[in-house]
Design brief:
By secondary structure, this protein is an alpha/beta fold. The protein has 2 domains: 239 residues, Aspartate Aminotransferase, domain 2 (3-Layer(aba) Sandwich); 139 residues, Alpha-Beta Complex (Aspartate Aminotransferase, domain 1). It is built from 13 helices and 12 strands. Strands 1-7-6-5-4-2-3 form a 7-stranded mixed β-sheet, with helices on both faces. A 5-stranded mixed β-sheet has the order 8-9-12-11-10, covered by helices on one side. Helix 2 packs parallel to helix 8 and helix 9 packs parallel to helix 13. The longest helix has 20 residues. It is globular, with a radius of gyration of 21 Å. It starts with 9 loop residues before the first helix and ends with a helix.
Length: 391
């Protein structure tokens, strides 16, 4: 259900849309722990019949999620990969799908190990280059899937220009918005048709929920996704849906702090002699800084650059020794939470990507991915400095 309270600010809508006060007067949306619903007649057309098809808790969440991306429709899934799978299940043998080459390792594994025999032609290309995309389009191209910023190299695709190109060729555009989140980037407003989130990340924000979502404006795509969601049954539990609905209420204040911290830490890393490369869209050294400034903005229009930093340590630093010196920064996969996390994509999130392809992309063994939390920036810098200098 699309949000109609357009005059309210994003932070206000995050708290109130979908969070209706029911007949009991409860100020917080209740959780409906039920798999099935009593029907008034044998031929009932009640709104809720079976929880795999829909429930009040899920409906509240999906209304809230639609608001985040100014979408007509939203669909909740049990994980980001379940949501991503739903997108690719929309297509049939002979269809051609273009995908960002520097894509999350799980998506690479899904396409090359699971969906590789379904006769959909998946092609990985450099989606940072509009000419490359244009040349790759064929008469059977049905989807261009962008991951922007990408994981872990923070490469950007120009969503507006790609969407304009796709629209001319009657091609759908889907965008994985996990790395920026809805507070920093809203792809549907830039012309995309489908937005995917691993809502486990920024939208949950507390590393305690596993879930995913699709936000959609295209009516035909919505019909297909509705069927896939209902039939596949990969929905979040009522409790996870409720936790996510709760978490979105603090999205604005959490993410603003994370973005601010990341900007300070990226500048510090960029001046550190033990760091050989820093990738952060908010640094002018980022080759797509101008695009980031134009494309990434909070709801009031101010440019923002995210809370994800990738940086490469000098080869003199032993990664395991470095990690053991960390205390408030946790060595773990995932991102977007209030607690800072650090990982090594080469051996963790992108372990399934062949060595030669990682080398070609620039994913090196000493490249670290840092998800900046809401701790005090000075404490995070102090810990990184200690770990580097006591290796």
């Amino acid at each position: 259900m699309a949000n109609k309270k357009n005059k309210l600010h994003f932070s206000t809508k995050s708290i109130h849309v979908g969070n209706k006060i029911d007949e009991t007067g409860a100020a917080v949306t209740p959780i409906h722990f039920t798999s099935t619903f009593r029907q008034p007649t044998f031929a009932s057309t009640s709104k809720y019949v079976y929880s795999r098809v829909g429930s009040p808790t899920l409906a509240a969440l999906e209304e809230n999620l639609a608001m985040l991306e100014n979408a007509k429709y939203a669909y909740a899934f049990s994980s980001g990969m379940a949501a991503m799978t739903a997108i690719f299940m929309m297509f049939k043998p002979g269809d051609h799908v273009l995908i960002s080459r520097n894509v999350y390792g799980g998506v690479f594994r899904l396409v090359t190990k699971v969906l590789n025999d379904n006769k959909v032609d998946f092609e990985f290309i450099d989606t940072t280059n509009l000419d490359t995309i244009a040349k790759a389009i064929t008469e059977n191209t049905k989807l261009i899937h962008l991951e922007t910023p990408s994981n872990p190299l923070l490469e950007l695709a120009d969503i507006k220009k790609v969407s304009e190109l796709a629209n001319k060729n009657n091609i759908l555009v889907s965008v994985d918005n996990t790395f920026m989140g809805s507070y920093g980037q809203r792809p549907l407003d830039l012309g995309a048709d489908i937005v995917m989130h691993s809502t486990t990340k920024f939208l949950s924000g507390h590393s305690d929920v596993l879930s995913g979502a699709l936000m959609v404006n295209d009516d035909s795509a919505s019909e297909k996704i509705t069927l896939i969601q209902n039939t596949g049954g990969a929905l979040p539990s009522p409790f996870d849906a409720w936790l996510l609905l709760r978490s979105v209420k603090t999205l604005s204040v959490r993410v603003e702090k994370q973005f601010d911290n990341a900007g300070k830490i990226a500048k510090w890393l960029d001046s550190n002699s033990l760091v050989t490369r820093v990738i952060y869209p908010g640094l002018k050294s980022h080759k797509q800084f101008d695009l980031a400034t134009k494309q990434h903005s909070c709801p009031d229009g101010k440019p923002v650059y995210g809370s994800m930093i990738s940086f490469e340590l000098d080869q003199s630093i032993n990664l395991d020794s470095f990690a053991k010196k960390l205390s408030i920064i946790t060595l773990a996969e995932s991102l977007g939470g209030v607690k800072s996390l650090i990982s090594c994509p080469y051996s963790m999130t992108h372990a399934s990507v062949p060595h030669d392809e990682k080398a070609e992309l620039g994913i090196t063994p000493n490249l670290l991915r840092f998800s900046v939390g809401i701790e005090h920036a000075d404490d995070l810098i102090s810990e990184l400095e200690f770990a580097m200098n006591h290796n």
